[in-house]
Amino acid sequence: MVPCLWTTAGPHRVYGQQAHSARDSIGDVTQAFEQTVADQGTWLLFAHAAATLYMTGVIWFVQIVHYPLFSRVGQPGFSDYEREHVRRTGWVVAGPMLVELAAAVAVVWVVGDWLAWTGLALVGIIWCSTGLWQVPAHLRLEAGFDEAVHLRLTRTNWVRTAAWTARSVVALGLAATAG
Question: Per-residue confidence at 23, pLDDT binned at 50, 70, 90?
């Protein structure tokens, strides 16, 4: 019978060598497990950073280009334009925002330091701003263009723009600590 050992590279048969002691084998399994966890943590931090950087790019585009152009659409077609804007934007941002939220929670669970908690707090600010200011403004704009609502939408969106920009710094800082 040929002894089988589990090492960080997987199971190995030992030919012509004396098998490791049980304690050495347990150490090998522990090391393999720790490496697997570390590898998953690395992937988590990079997925977290990717979702955050994506959303940071989107929010800066929206803040600097997209929202300011709302006033140029014109009143007659604005309601249709706004409804289509909301529908299409949902496809672009819903998935990445959910991935970012899940990743931020997971990073707090895995890393748990002040930087991870700061990142999660910023996600909370982003989601609160979205729910309390941006969504209601878009709902009002679906009824037709309103300069005051448009101005409020653009001004309050700076909260999300700043929070996502800060999240990018946090996510890159966390990714820099990865293996």
Answer: low
